[in-house]
Amino acid sequence: MKKILILSAWQDVNIGDIAHTPGMLHVLEKYIPDAEIILWAWTPLKPDIEAMIKRRFPKIKVVTGSIREDGIADNQDLEAAINWCDFLLHGSGPMLVAQDHVKGFIEKTGKPYGVFGITYDGNSYFNETLSKAEFIYFRDSVSLYRAYEEGITCNDMQFGPDAAFAFDIENSEKAINFLNKNGLESGKFVCCIGRYRFTPFWDIKPNIAFNQEQNEFNEMHKKHDHIPLQKAIIKIVRELGMKVLLCPEDMSQMDLEKEQIYSPLPEDVKPFVVCKHDFWLPDEALGVYKRSAGLFGNEMHSPILCIGNGIPALICRYKEVTTKGYMWQDIGLGEWLFNLDVEDEVLSIPYAVTKMLTESERSLRMTASAMRFVEDNYREMAAKLQSYI
Question: What beta strand segments (E) does 103-235 contain?
Answer without folding.
Answer: 113-118, 136-138, 157-159, 189-193
